[in-house]
Amino acid sequence: MRLRVAHAAVLLACAFLAASGAVAEDSDVIDYRLDNGLTLLVSQRSGVPLACCRLVYRAGSVFDPPGKEGLADFVRRLTFHGTGDLGSADPQAEIHLRAELKKTTALRDRQFELLPADMVRKLNTLPRKIEAARNLVRTRLKSLAGGNLPPMSREEMVSTLDFVRDRERHIRRMMAEIKRVKKSAHYRKFQVLRVLEEKIEKNTERLLAIVTPDPIRRAYRRGGAIRFASRTGPDATVFSAALPANRVELFLWVESRRMTGAVFRQFEEEKNLVLRSFSDAPPSFSPLLRRVTFADHPYARPVRGTRASAETFSPDDATSFYKAHYRPDRAALVVVGDVDPDRIYFLASRYFGPAEASEQVLPAPAAPPPTGPLHMTRFASPPCVELRYVLPGASDEDWPAIQCFARALPHRARFQEAVLGPGLAEHLDVSLETGALGSVMTVRAFPSPGASLFRLAAALKEAVRIAAILPLGDTAFQAARASWKAETADRLGAPGVEADALALGFARGAWRMAEAGALDGLEAEDVSGTAGRTVGAVQPVELWTLERKP
């Protein structure tokens, strides 16, 4: 099935295209749908010698299971360790070794549970302690013998001999303890445990000998990829690459294998890297602000999760998440560049066509409810008053009107007069952070010197409320539409940025909102009505930023 959707805007030149010596005057986004549900979005750019490719999954942090925050991002990291046939010199031998390791590890764990913990600790640590004590005794005896060292005094010799005798008594006590433990009824089970651990160690060494490290990144480098990256957000996980236009097939080949046959090699090593990253990360105010803004909604979760949640990750957790979300009916392939759309459709059918859609229906998270009125204060610079309104997201039919209202708000004369007129603020700023399930409109006011933050906050809230209720004037409405068209034209001027916009648009359930004409069907009355039902009915989260006095 194919549906052609023409962009209505003239695409502007940008640095990326200027470097390639080409400027696109128009662009067609062609929407394909494979039988297994995979969405294919192709934007042909004649004269651009690159292809910017994205594979986006609706597998963001909002889908993390309870208590497993950060699992979506962790699975993304694991998928870079290759597939069954990508990253292994001998796939059949690897399958056999992994099965052996899984079986042996399960036996080792069961055997470990049968042994007293104190016995295992002693038999594992006492031999090392004995060896360390013997090395120390040898060192002291060498110093006693002299050699090239300065001669010892009588007191030093006596002290050294006393130390050596004490260490030897300690060694004898540890050896006696080992003998006592070996006579217990559990010692034979410990010997079985040692045999299993040696077998695990040998199989691990054999496995590492046939596994290629970092196989996907290596495949992209060898294939001539200019850059490649991946990221996980609240709504989606995206894998991206920029390649020569004649090497797009490499991206499809690699990502189709990542979708259908990822092998989670080096699970524990990757988990340890994630745990160490939490120790190295500096404290940040943003996670706290998100928790206050979204309360108990999944948007409040940190995308990377927490150290406590990461410690609970298991191979079964990662496999379950991968099977549930890395499937064609939850994914979209985006290609922007000098490519033939029919050729891309043929290659996508060839590589992704065999992937099977799942009959499992995943419940969609609910939209975040408004959380205000709440008040927060922090010390930073510059001082400002910030109002955060939780509103419907990009998948909601009201989102275009909300987008238009947020863009029109700074241009409304009454809004400016209410805050800037009395000299309460020097500057106003309005932004909209958009997600699939919800968006946050942030209104900031930077106070004039000596202005009261209490008066400024009250005036700002009242000005936003009145702006949401009163009809939207034609001047502000046209300014909002012009702002959207200009920003979209700038965004679509670069193939990579257009690919990102289409990918995230798909994840949010509204990829056509990436087009310049997305707001063309709106009327000022529609915007006013929607603003009154949404912005006018919401109590904001209020954040004051104060400068700490010396």
List key phrases describing it:
single chain, 550 residues, alpha+beta, Cytochrome Bc1 Complex, Chain A, domain 1, 3 domains, 19 helices, disordered N terminus
Short description:
With 550 residues, this protein is of the alpha+beta class. Helix content is 49%, strand content 16%. A hairpin with a 3-residue loop joins β10 and β11.
Write the layout of secondary structure elements.
Blueprint: E1 2-6, H1 15-20, E2 28-33, E3 39-44, E4 50-57, H2 71-78, H3 91-113, H4 117-145, H5 154-182, H6 187-210, H7 215-222, E5 227-232, E6 237-244, H8 248-261, H9 267-280, H10 286-294, H11 307-310, H12 315-325, E7 331-337, H13 341-352, E8 374-379, E9 384-392, H14 399-408, H15 413-419, E10 425-434, E11 438-447, H16 453-469, H17 474-492, H18 495-507, H19 524-533, E12 541-546
Helix pairs in contact: 2-12, 3-6, 4-5, 8-13, 14-17, 14-19, 15-16, 16-19
Tell me, rounded to a whole number, the average pLDDT.
84
* CATH fold label of the largest domain: Cytochrome Bc1 Complex, Chain A, domain 1
What fraction strand?
Answer: 15-25%
Characterize the overall form.
Answer: globular
Helix and strand composition category? alpha+beta
The major sheet is characterized as: 7 strands, mixed
Return Rg in Å: 32 Å
Poorly predicted sequence stretches spanning 5 or more consecutive residues: 1-26
> What's the count of strands?
12
The H-level CATH homologous superfamily of the largest domain, spelled out, is: Metalloenzyme, LuxS/M16 peptidase-like
Helix content: 40-55%
End-to-end distance: 66 Å
Q: Return the CATH architecture of the largest domain.
A: 2-Layer Sandwich
Question: Strands of the biggest beta sheet: in what spatial order?
Answer: 1-2-3-7-4-6-5
Work out the count of structural domains: 3
Given this structure, which CATH class of the largest domain is correct? Alpha Beta
Number of helices: 19
